[in-house]
C-alpha cells in the first residue's frame, strides 16, 4: 500500500468513527435524505424527539426506514414516562414518572412498568432509551429534576434505578442511566446555565453515586453525563468534559465499561461556554463515547460541523485517534447488543395495558374528604415548563374529570392570575385547584391560600413535588403530571374510586 493510500484509508476510518459517535436529531416524521445518506457513511445512532412522532405506526415505519440503511442503527429516545414523554407527547404518558414509582416503593412494580414501557418502545423499533434518571433529588428547589427523580432518599433511588434498568433491558431496550455524577442537588437548569454542586467527596460517595453504582451492578448499557460543575471532582470542567469524572471516576473507580453518552451538547451549559464543536471534542477526549445533539439543533450542518471538528482534532493531535476509535467501538458494540437482545416475556403484572394507571393510583397521597361533586370548576395554575418536560404535553386532571363528570368546567391560569378571577369564573361550582410544585412558586401558593380561605371546600391537586403543607378540604398529591396521574386524581375527586 502506498503512503497516500494508507493516509486515505486512515482518514476514511477516522471520518466513519467521527460519524459513529454522534447521536443527532432531525426534523419531520420521516427520515430526510441527508440522514439516510450519513447513516450509509457510518452514522450509527439517531435521536428521536416529540417532533418526530405522530403515532406508533408512523414511528415503526420511521425506524424501519432507518434500518433499511443500517440494520443495527441505534434509535434513541428521551422517554422517561411521567412528565417527560416523547412517545405520547401530545396526549400525556400512560406511565407515571419516577417520583410516583418511588412513592409506591415497590421495586417489582417499577420493573414491570419499565418493562411495559420498553416493550412499547421496542415494538416501534426504538432500542435505546435515555432513561432512567438516577438523580437523588436532595434539593427540593431543583428546577429541572424534581418528579423525574425517584426521590430524596439515596437508597430508595438506588433500588428503583436498578429495577428500572432491569425492566427496560429485559424488553430489549438499552437503558441510559442519567445524569452522572448526579444532578439532584442543583438549583439551576443546565439547559440555561452551568449548575454547580458544592459538596465534599464523602457526600458525593454516600449520596449521588449510590444509584449509579446500583445501575452499573444491574448492567445498564449506557450512562449519560451531566453538564454540571462538581469542584470536589474537577474544579474547572463540567462532568461531560472532565477526564477526572468520566475516565477517572466512572471508568476506573466505579468499573463501568459500557457506553458513556453526553447530555444534549446544545444545552447552554456547554454550548454557551465552550461551543458545541469544541465541547464535543473535549467530551470524547475526556472519555465520552457518544455525543447527544439534536434536541434544538437538528440539521445536516450540525452533523457535518461536529464530524469535521472531531476529524480535525485527530489530525491536529488534540484528540488521540485511539480514543475516537475506542468510543466508536463502544457505540457499535451497543448496536450489536440491541440486535441480539431477546426480550423477556411480559411480566404477569403488565399484561393489562393499564399497569401505568394502576401504578398512578397506588402513588396517590390523599388528605381530607370532599362531598359529592356534580359540576366542579378546575383551575389549573400553570408554571413555565422546563425544557426537558416541554410545553407540548397536556397535563392536569381537567380532561379526565370531564370524562367522569360531564358538567366539569375548566381553565388555565398562568402567573399573574388572581384568586378573584378564579372565584368569579367558578361561581357556585366547587373549585378544584391544580398546581405543580407550589412550594417553588410563591404566586401559586398565594393564589392557593386565598382560594382556600374564601372557599374552604376547595379541592387541591398537587402534581409536582408535594413539599407544601396539604390544604383544602381534599388534598391529592399525585407525585407527577402524567396523563395517568391526572386520571387517578380525577377518579378520587369524582368519587369514582375509593382512595387507598
Could you list some keywords that capture this structure?
6-stranded mixed β-sheet, 17 helices, about 500 residues
How many H/I helical runs? Answer: 17
Which stretches are low in confidence, meaning pLDDT under 50 for 5 or more residues running?
1-10
Strand composition percent: 5-15%
Main beta-sheet strand count, sense and barrel state: 6 strands, parallel
The gross shape turns out to be globular
Strand order of the largest sheet: 2-3-4-5-6-7
- Class from secondary-structure proportions: alpha/beta
Total number of beta strands: 14
Mean of pLDDT: 91
Distance, first to last CA: 75 Å
> What Rg is obtained from the alpha carbons, in whole angstroms?
23 Å
Q: Percent range for helical residues?
A: 40-55%
Question: Explain this structure to me?
Answer:
The chain has 500 residues and is an alpha/beta fold. Helix content is 42%, strand content 11%. It is built from 17 helices and 14 strands. The strands form three sheets. A six-stranded parallel sheet has the order 2-3-4-5-6-7. Helix 14 links the parallel strand 10 and strand 11 (409-414). Helix 1 crosses helix 12. The chain is globular. The protein starts with a helix and ends in a 6-residue tail after the last helix. Residues 1-10 have low confidence and may be disordered.
Amino acid at each position: 500500500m502506498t503512503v497516500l493510500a494508507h493516509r486515505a484509508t486512515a482518514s476514511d476510518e477516522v471520518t466513519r468513527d467521527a460519524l459513529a459517535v454522534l447521536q443527532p436529531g432531525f426534523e419531520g416524521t420521516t427520515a430526510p435524505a441527508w440522514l439516510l445518506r450519513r447513516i450509509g457513511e457510518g452514522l450509527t445512532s439517531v435521536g428521536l424527539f416529540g417532533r418526530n412522532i405522530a403515532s406508533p405506526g408512523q414511528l415503526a415505519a420511521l425506524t424501519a426506514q432507518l434500518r433499511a440503511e443500517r440494520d443495527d442503527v441505534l434509535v434513541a429516545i428521551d422517554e422517561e414516562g411521567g412528565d417527560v414523554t416523547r412517545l405520547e407527547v401530545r396526549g400525556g404518558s400512560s406511565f407515571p414518572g419516577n417520583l410516583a414509582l418511588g412513592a409506591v416503593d415497590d421495586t417489582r412494580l417499577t420493573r414491570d412498568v419499565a418493562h411495559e414501557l420498553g416493550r412499547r418502545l421496542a415494538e416501534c423499533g426504538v432500542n435505546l432509551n435515555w432513561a432512567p434518571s438516577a438523580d437523588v433529588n436532595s434539593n427540593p428547589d431543583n428546577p429541572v429534576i424534581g418528579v423525574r427523580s425517584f426521590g430524596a432518599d439515596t437508597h430508595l433511588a438506588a433500588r428503583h434505578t436498578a429495577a428500572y434498568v432491569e425492566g427496560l433491558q429485559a424488553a430489549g431496550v438499552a437503558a441510559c442511566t442519567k445524569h452522572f455524577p448526579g444532578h439532584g442537588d442543583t438549583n439551576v437548569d443546565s439547559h440555561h446555565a452551568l449548575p454547580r454542586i458544592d459538596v465534599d467527596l464523602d457526600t458525593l460517595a454516600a449520596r449521588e453515586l449510590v444509584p449509579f453504582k446500583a445501575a452499573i451492578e444491574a448492567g445498564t448499557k449506557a450512562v449519560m453525563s451531566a453538564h454540571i460543575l462538581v469542584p470536589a471532582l474537577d474544579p474547572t470542567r463540567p462532568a461531560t468534559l472532565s477526564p477526572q469524572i468520566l475516565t477517572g471516576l466512572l471508568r476506573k473507580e466505579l468499573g463501568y465499561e459500557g457506553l458513556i453518552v453526553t447530555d444534549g451538547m446544545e444545552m447552554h451549559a456547554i454550548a454557551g461556554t465552550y461551543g458545541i464543536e469544541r465541547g464535543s471534542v473535549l467530551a470524547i477526549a475526556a472519555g465520552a463515547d457518544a455525543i447527544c445533539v439534536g434536541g434544538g439543533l437538528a440539521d445536516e450542518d450540525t452533523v457535518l460541523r461536529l464530524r469535521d471538528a472531531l476529524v480535525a482534532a485527530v489530525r491536529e493531535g488534540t484528540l488521540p485517534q485511539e480514543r475516537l476509535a475506542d468510543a466508536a467501538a463502544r457505540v457499535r458494540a451497543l448496536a450489536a447488543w440491541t440486535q441480539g437482545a431477546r426480550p423477556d416475556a411480559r411480566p404477569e403484572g403488565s399484561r393489562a395495558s393499564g399497569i401505568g394507571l394502576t401504578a398512578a393510583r397506588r402513588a396517590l397521597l390523599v388528605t381530607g374528604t370532599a362531598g359529592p361533586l356534580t359540576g366542579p370548576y378546575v383551575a389549573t395554575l400553570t408554571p413555565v415548563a422546563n425544557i426537558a418536560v416541554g410545553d407540548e404535553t397536556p397535563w392536569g386532571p381537567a380532561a379526565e374529570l370531564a370524562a367522569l363528570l360531564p358538567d366539569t368546567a375548566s381553565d388555565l391560569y398562568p402567573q399573574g392570575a388572581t384568586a378573584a378571577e378564579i372565584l368569579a369564573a367558578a361561581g357556585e361550582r366547587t373549585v378544584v385547584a391544580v398546581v405543580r410544585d407550589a412550594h417553588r412558586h410563591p404566586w401559586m401558593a398565594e393564589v392557593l391560600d386565598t382560594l382556600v380561605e374564601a372557599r374552604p371546600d376547595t379541592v387541591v391537586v398537587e402534581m409536582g413535588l408535594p413539599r407544601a403543607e396539604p390544604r383544602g378540604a381534599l388534598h391529592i398529591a399525585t407525585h407527577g403530571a402524567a396523563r395517568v396521574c391526572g386520571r387517578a386524581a380525577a377518579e378520587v375527586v369524582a368519587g369514582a374510586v375509593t382512595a387507598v
